[in-house]
Amino acid sequence: MRLVSVNRLQAGMKLGKKIYNDEGLVLLADGVELTDALIRRLANIGIGYIYIEDSITEDVVIAGILQDETRNQALKVIRNEFQQMSGASGITKGFYHLDKKFSKVMESILDDLANQEDPMIMLMDMHTADNYLYAHSLNVCLYTLVLGIAYGYSREELQVIGLGALLHDIGKTQIPLKIIQKPGMLSDEEFRHMQAHTEIGYRILKEEPNVPLLAAHCALQHHERIDGSGYPRGLTGPQIHEYAKWLGVADSYDAMTSNRVYKKAMLPHQAVEALYVGSGTLYEQKQLELFRDRVAIYPLGLSVKLSTGESGVVVKIHPTTPHRPVVRVLTGPEGEPVVPFERDLASVLSVVIVDVNDEDGAVAQST
Ligand SMILES: [Fe+2]
């Protein structure tokens, strides 16, 4: 399989992975041959990159971090609950209670992650325009848990930080949709309204008997930044709970790599570079370092150019050195087709990835 920007899809290409809608139903099955109408539809629902079948990379299998069933069940619980909360009244006064299914969903997610040796953060660009909040909540939860596992948290600690991450934006259910989905810049007043989702989320979660208070603090503090520039309180480094700081990194990364009405998705290596701009000011340097080690910055199927002048596709990622993957070389330094062969960048240290094909076909500088 090969990763292709929706802008570069051509009729006749075959879809490599299923695409689900926000109800967990299959929108497009794998193997479907794309038509111009389907390509337009994919662009319209806000999907940035998809996997297509490709004879030269047909042995490359891209497995999700979660089993499809766990992912769909999680999205269903989040969607049902968040939708109900949008219309409910008195929810910050403890009149409304979250479904106990959230704890069950967390158990299934933790079980799936426990079955993997070194779980990694992989590109999971399956967001559609209307399910953004649900898919974002789940992605941030997974990214935070991958970090938490790498950091060495116990299962009990992961349960708390995972629940905090899954519900971090629950306060947004109480913000008018016209503000949440506004494509342009928010006015000062709208921005203040939007920022309130942190405190609203805290008020909702602290009343929940099934949610630990620490998870409520994750909702309250996930937009705080260590230099005091965040909100709602402008807390600084030591005042922000460690869990909320992990969550802040995961939240920012997912926002950067998601396609939104007002901005195009960044590729993982671009997002990691953007996060590093805030190293030591917005985010803790040590947390960013661990994040960088756990994210597949060059996802499987990505087209890359090497310092040798050769081009190819990422076909394998080493869990301990994700920035030095195995690349299947398809063209030589002059762009001439070659008999495909593999270069393992983990063992040939003199060769590096210098460029990545971005969505317009132009070449983006790599980190
Ligand atoms: Fe948020």
Q: Regions with pLDDT < 50 over 5+ consecutive residues?
A: 359-367
Mean pLDDT score:
87
Bound molecules: fe (ii) ion
Structural class, by secondary structure, is: alpha+beta
What portion of residues is helical? 25-40%
What would you call the shape?
globular
Give the SSE layout:
Blueprint: E1 2-5, E2 19-20, E3 26-28, H1 36-44, E4 49-52, H2 68-87, H3 101-114, H4 132-151, H5 155-166, H6 177-180, H7 188-195, H8 197-206, H9 213-221, H10 242-256, H11 268-276, H12 285-294, E5 303-306, E6 311-316, E7 326-331, E8 337-344, E9 353-357, E10 363-365
Helix pairs in contact: 2-3, 2-4, 3-5, 4-5, 4-10, 5-9, 8-9, 9-10, 10-11
This protein binds fe (ii) ion.
Fe (ii) ion (FE2) binds at residues 168-169, 197, 222-223.
Question: Could you explain how this protein is built, in words?
Answer:
There is one protein chain. The protein is an alpha+beta fold. Helices cover 38% and strands 12% of the residues. It contains 12 helices and 10 strands. It has helices at residues 36-44, 68-87, 101-114, 132-151, 155-166, 177-180, 188-195, 197-206, 213-221, 242-256, 268-276, 285-294; strands at 2-5, 19-20, 26-28, 49-52, 303-306, 311-316, 326-331, 337-344, 353-357, 363-365. A 6-stranded antiparallel beta sheet has the order 8-7-6-5-9-10, with no helix packed on it. Strands 1-4 form a two-stranded antiparallel sheet. It has a two-stranded antiparallel sheet with strand order 2-3. Strand 2 (19-20) and strand 3 form a beta hairpin. The longest helix is centred in the N-terminal third of the chain and has 20 residues, at 68-87. The chain is globular and about 65 Å long. The protein starts with a strand and ends with a strand. Mean pLDDT is 87; it is low at 359-367. Fe (ii) ion is lined by residues 168-169, 197, 222-223.
